[in-house]
Amino acid sequence: MNTQKRKKLEEKGWKFGTVQEFLNLSPEENNYIEVKLALSKGLQKFRKDKKTTQAQLAKMLASSQSRVAKMEKGDPSVSIDLLIRSLFNLGMSKKYLAQILLK
Amino acid sequence: MNTQKRKKLEEKGWKFGTVQEFLNLSPEENNYIEVKLALSKGLQKFRKDKKTTQAQLAKMLASSQSRVAKMEKGDPSVSIDLLIRSLFNLGMSKKYLAQILLK
DNA sequence: TAAATCTATGTCATTTCTGACATAAAGTCA
DNA sequence: TGACTTTATGTCAGAAATGACATAGATTTA
Q: Cβ–Cβ contacts within 10 Å for residue A4, how many?
């Protein structure tokens, strides 16, 4: 399954796990996407727990509101690298990161 | 600490954790590097357990021997994305991935 | 419901990553 | 030692990620 196809799906708000049943996502692609979405959700949870806005979070991360929106959405233009670096920048521990991955 | 500086250090075979004591790696930079090196080591361990060569692993990953060498070294030109995708491609589970991160 | 605030999407220039190739360096073994 | 195998390093062109901006869409508040 290519990036474009996945992008389309994510754009339409598909949840993976559901998608894997319909389409031929390989287990490894599925794992990758699950990890990415778990990190995305982790970031969003952090922000909501802090009761702050994407714009404010962007400032903390020296990024932009639009980039934060994409991070929280697990947009294809966002890498796992960026998500992990962001979470660490916000003070998350490796231990908590590992737990997020298992969600 | 910038990429160039880190690159130099990694090139010289520095182990981080040691480095953090000497230089001003921030906790988040240190976490990032530790995660990356843990994944690198995980990949190398996989290969050695399978008693195979970098060239053969490269074939499994549809990559090149040189890229595999860099992955195992945690070279700055290698992203965490690539390491995670590679490990999943080789059949690693999310659970095992999470354990690697805590090493 | 109108204004204000917040989130999502599209696009772009620049930076970084990736696979590949060449070749150097290190290790193995006859 | 010298051939052979394996690993490491440098470089490059093409691909992907990143931050930023503009703006659309959604939500909240007065």
A: 9
A97 touches chain B (CB under 8 A): yes
Q: What is the pLDDT of residue B26?
A: 77
**pLDDT confidence tier of residue A28, bands split at 50, 70 and 90:** confident
Q: Give A-chain residues touching B71 at CB under 8 angstroms.
A: none
Domain boundaries in chain A?
Answer: 3-101
Predicted model pTM? 0.84
Nearest to B90 by CA among A20, A9, A27: A27
For CA atoms B98, B40, A20, A69, the dihedral sign is: positive
Question: What's the CATH superfamily of A3-101?
Answer: lambda repressor-like DNA-binding domains (1.10.260.40)
Which DSSP letter does residue B98 get? H
Q: Which of A6, A60, A85, A103 to mutate to test the interface with B (most CBs of B within 10 A)?
A: A85
Contacts of residue A83, defined as CB under 8 A and 6 or more positions apart, other chains included, come to A36, A39, A40, A42, A43, A71
Mean pLDDT of chain A: 83
Given a cut of 50, whether residue A69 has pLDDT beyond it is yes
Cβ atoms within 10 A of the Cβ of B41, count?
14
Give residue-wise pLDDT tens across range B62-90: 999 999 999 999 999 999 999 999 999 99
